[in-house]
């Protein structure tokens, strides 16, 4: 199959145009058409010679993200279900904040990590996405915002899949969307979330970027975390904490811990106290931030949400031990915006 037009970095395009015997500036023109003008076909690239457009047509394909569904929430959240060329489907979400528009992208079709509270893992992992299929989600989201003159200001790599199990594609995606001659999303405005793929946390620390890292932790100890997150059996809690310690020491950057609160499972005061102890004994607290996430109800999982007053009690307990903590603002609850829910409905419909 032909490579996707969004698979290439600017440096890749420079090598390609050179191989075609074209002047170097053509690479910049192609990149500009893709990410600044957001062309959707080679024919639109009118300042390129017809012969070059013909070569592009022969050697590349525009990624086919077919919009299968679009849901818009009363809070401004927009969720897309995109169909891929092989018949699979993925989700992408635009979230509106007071500081701008954020897009949440998917890195895999399905997920094999198996978190018991997450709809993304239903059906397991189908395949990794190519870098261009991840980039295309951002381009599609930006095209949707172009109609109202708005811009994507930040990216969260927190959609379906585990980015650090598709590490090379994810890193190439990040380089493409960050490039100042393209979409120009600043590194400090990008966050990658991992469930704790320990070897690649070390790799990411050594990348020397300003990109933010979030760790899905969801429990303060091995036993409970293994029940909620089977990935913990591959990469035990103690090893994860050591990798986090390395990341903070190597980068000096703040590390976010995502903690989904599940009614009666991991949301007691004693869990908060144990979490505070682990963090304070291993990491410098000024570089630690805990983001509490009231769990979304997923019918297939039958978990319940922690009551509101107990969420605040969990927060106060962490604060008592000087842990920086916030509660994630819920968005898109009226459109099944929890990761994987729209895709799960689509899979059910196809099966029927």
From TrEMBL:
HAMAP family attached to this UniProt entry: RNA_methyltr_RlmN
Additional record remark: Reaction proceeds by a ping-pong mechanism involving intermediate methylation of a conserved cysteine residue.
Compartment(s) of residence: Cytoplasm
Residues of the Radical SAM core domain: 97-334
Taxonomic path: Bacteria, Bacillati, Bacillota, Bacilli, Bacillales
Superkingdom of origin: Bacteria
Co-factor remark: Binds 1 [4Fe-4S] cluster. The cluster is coordinated with 3 cysteines and an exchangeable S-adenosyl-L-methionine.
Residues given in the record as S-adenosyl-L-methionine binding sites: 161-162, 193, 216-218, 296
Top enzyme category: transferase
Keyword Transferase found: yes
Protein family per UniProt: Belongs to the radical SAM superfamily. RlmN family.
Active site: 91 (proton acceptor), 339 (s-methylcysteine intermediate)
Broad class of the protein's primary localization: cytoplasm
GO BP annotations listed: methylation
Catalytic activity: adenosine(37) in tRNA + 2 reduced [2Fe-2S]-[ferredoxin] + 2 S-adenosyl-L-methionine = 2-methyladenosine(37) in tRNA + 5'-deoxyadenosine + L-methionine + 2 oxidized [2Fe-2S]-[ferredoxin] + S-adenosyl-L-homocysteine; adenosine(2503) in 23S rRNA + 2 reduced [2Fe-2S]-[ferredoxin] + 2 S-adenosyl-L-methionine = 2-methyladenosine(2503) in 23S rRNA + 5'-deoxyadenosine + L-methionine + 2 oxidized [2Fe-2S]-[ferredoxin] + S-adenosyl-L-homocysteine
UniProt protein name: Probable dual-specificity RNA methyltransferase RlmN
GO MF annotation terms: methyltransferase activity
Keyword presence, Lipoprotein: no
Keyword annotations from UniProtKB, A to Z: 4Fe-4S, Cytoplasm, Disulfide bond, Iron, Iron-sulfur, Metal-binding, Methyltransferase, rRNA processing, S-adenosyl-L-methionine, Transferase, tRNA processing
Residues the record lists as binding [4Fe-4S] cluster: 111, 115, 118
InterPro entries: Aldolase_TIM, Elp3/MiaA/NifB-like_rSAM, Methyltransferase_A, RlmN_N, RNA_MTrfase_RlmN, rRNA_lsu_MTrfase_RlmN/Cfr, rSAM, rSAM_sf
């Amino acid at each position: 199959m032909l490579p996707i037009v969004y698979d290439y970095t600017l440096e890749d395009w420079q090598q390609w145009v050179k191989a075609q015997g074209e002047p170097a500036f053509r690479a910049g023109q192609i990149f500009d058409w893709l990410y600044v003008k957001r062309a959707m076909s080679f024919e639109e690239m009118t300042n390129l010679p017809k012969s070059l457009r013909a070569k592009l047509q022969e050697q590349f394909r525009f990624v086919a993200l077919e919009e299968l569904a679009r849901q818009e929430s009363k809070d401004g959240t927009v969720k897309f279900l995109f169909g891929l060329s092989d018949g699979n489907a993925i989700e992408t979400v635009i979230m509106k904040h007071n500081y701008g528009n954020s897009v949440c992208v998917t890195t895999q079709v399905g997920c094999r990590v198996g978190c018991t509270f997450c709809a993304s893992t239903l059906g397991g992992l189908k395949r990794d996405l190519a870098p261009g299929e991840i980039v295309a989600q951002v381009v599609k989201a930006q095209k949707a915002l172009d109609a109202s003159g708005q811009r994507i200001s930040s990216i969260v790599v927190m959609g379906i899949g585990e980015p650090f199990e598709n590490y090379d594609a994810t890193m190439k995606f990040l380089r493409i969307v960050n490039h100042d001659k393209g979409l120009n999303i600043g590194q400090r405005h990008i966050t990658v979330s991992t469930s704790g793929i320990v070897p690649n946390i070390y790799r990411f620390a050594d990348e020397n970027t300003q990109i933010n890292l979030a760790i899905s932790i969801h429990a303060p100890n091995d036993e409970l975390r293994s029940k909620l997150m089977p990935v913990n059996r591959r990469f035990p809690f103690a090893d994860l904490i050591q990798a986090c310690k390395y990341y903070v020491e190597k980068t000096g950057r703040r590390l976010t811990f995502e903690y989904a609160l599940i009614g009666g499972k991991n949301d007691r005061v004693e869990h908060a106290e144990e979490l505070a102890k682990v963090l304070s004994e291993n990491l410098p607290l000024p570089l630690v931030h805990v983001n509490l996430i009231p769990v979304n109800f997923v019918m297939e999982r039958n978990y319940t949400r922690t009551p509101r007053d107990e969420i605040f009690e969990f927060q106060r307990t962490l604060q008592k031990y000087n842990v920086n903590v916030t509660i994630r603002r819920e968005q898109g609850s009226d459109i099944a915006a929890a990761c994987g829910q729209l895709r799960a409905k689509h899979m059910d419909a196809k099966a029927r």
